[in-house]
Specification:
Layout: H1 8-16, E1 21-22, H2 32-39, E2 44-47, H3 52-55, E3 62-65, H4 72-81, H5 84-98, H6 103-129
Length: about 130
């Protein structure tokens, strides 16, 4: 069932109705919906490509699947559907994993990555000039 765009209470209620959050996009970069699912205490099934690699701890907060392998997504969902204790454990771990992911924290992390990249580039440029 497709529910369409949601926000606020309506979005929270929709997440609250789920047992598993399944994300199929292979070109996701930031993964806001994955983080929202984790914050809602849901295990996540997602492709092992792009943003989900940074957000889903395979086997701990959800399951990452090979998007090029037919049936992998359905198999992962079936695994979670069949095991309520596993769903609960992964959902709780996902919730803990995103508790500190505020916009300020995520922005600071991004700035640190850029600072590291710029420092590395300067160091490499300095070596070539010598």
């Amino acid at each position: 069932m497709l529910l369409g765009a949601r926000s606020g209470e309506s979005l929270a209620e929709a997440y609250g109705l789920l047992d598993v959050f399944v994300h199929t996009g292979t070109r996701e970069t930031f993964g806001q919906t994955l983080q929202e699912a984790h914050a809602s205490g849901l295990p996540v099934v997602a492709p092992a490509r792009g943003g989900p690699l940074d957000l889903v701890d395979d086997g701990r907060t959800g399951l990452l699947v090979d998007p090029d392998r037919p049936g992998a997504l359905a198999g992962a969902v079936a695994t979670l559907v069949a095991d309520p204790a596993l769903r609960d454990r992964m959902g709780r771990a996902g919730r803990v994993a995103v508790e500190g992911r505020t916009w300020a924290g995520v922005t600071a992390e991004l700035v640190r990555h850029y600072e590291t990249a710029v420092a590395g580039r300067r160091a490499r440029s300095g070596r070539r000039a010598a």
